[in-house]
Amino acid sequence: MTENLPPCPECSSAYTYEMGALLVCPECGHEWTPAPAGAAGDTEDGVIRDSVGNVLADGDTVTVTKTLKVKGHPTGIKAGTKVRNIRLVEGVAGHDIDCKIDGFGAMQLKSSVVKKA
Fold first, then answer.
1. Phi, psi at residue 112, to the nearest 5°?
2. Where are the domains of the chain?
3. Which of 69, 81, 95, 110 is geometrically suited to a Cys-Cys bond with 64, CB 3.0 to 4.6 A?
4. What is the tens place of the pLDDT at every residue in 40-93?
5. Contacts 24+ apart (CB under 8 A), 2-10
6. Level-2 CATH architecture, domain 61-116
7. What's the CA dihedral at 2, 14, 28, 54 to 10 degrees?
8. Could you tell me which residues come within 8 angstroms of residue 89 by beta carbon, excluding any fewer than 6 positions away?
9. How distant is the alpha carbon of residue 80 from its chain centre?
10. What share of the chain in percent tops pLDDT 70?
11. In terms of Cα–Cα distance, which of 46, 66, 68 is closest to 56?
């Protein structure tokens, strides 16, 4: 490769490649949009951004962008599920959104899997 692409944010694989506007990891199958310069989940100034770069704030409504597996549930959280009244926190393992989802209860999400509604 002649380009210097970032490693996969899910599994840290160095074998990422570009597919159109997305970056793709061949090892775990994770797809993401490259963050603009200075815009990642948590930036130096403490701002938390969603998967497309919009700034998130407490009380926002977000939409889940991909289907998420939930341990102990036969079905996960489906893509397109709206989550209202989020709270931004410093969670474990990059989970920076505290919320309550109907049918699942209280849980934490990563800002990289939601989009501001």
1. -75, -10
2. 1-40, 61-116
3. 81
4. 444 446 789 998 889 999 999 999 999 999 888 888 999 999 999 999 998 788
5. 6/34, 9/112
6. Roll (2.30)
7. -80
8. 96, 97, 98, 108
9. 13
10. 88
11. 46
